[in-house]
Amino acid sequence: MELPVEDLQLVNALQIAPRASWAELGAALGRHPATLSARWNKLREDRMAWVLGHLGGFPEQHCTAFVEVQANPELIDQATTELCAISQVLTVDDASSTADFRLTCLAADWLTMAREVLPQIRNATGVQRIKVSLCTRLFATGNIWRLDVLSPAQKVSLQRLSHPATSPPTLIPDTFWPMLHVLMRDGRATAKEIAQATGQHPSTTGRALKTALDTGMVSLRCELASHYTGCPLVVQWFARVPAGAEDAVAAFLTEHRTLRLCASTTGAANFTFMMQLRTPADIADIEARLAARVPGVVIVESCVGVRSFKRMGWMLDPEGRPTGEVVV
Question: Which terminus of the chain, N or C, has less C-beta within 10 A?
Answer without folding.
Answer: N
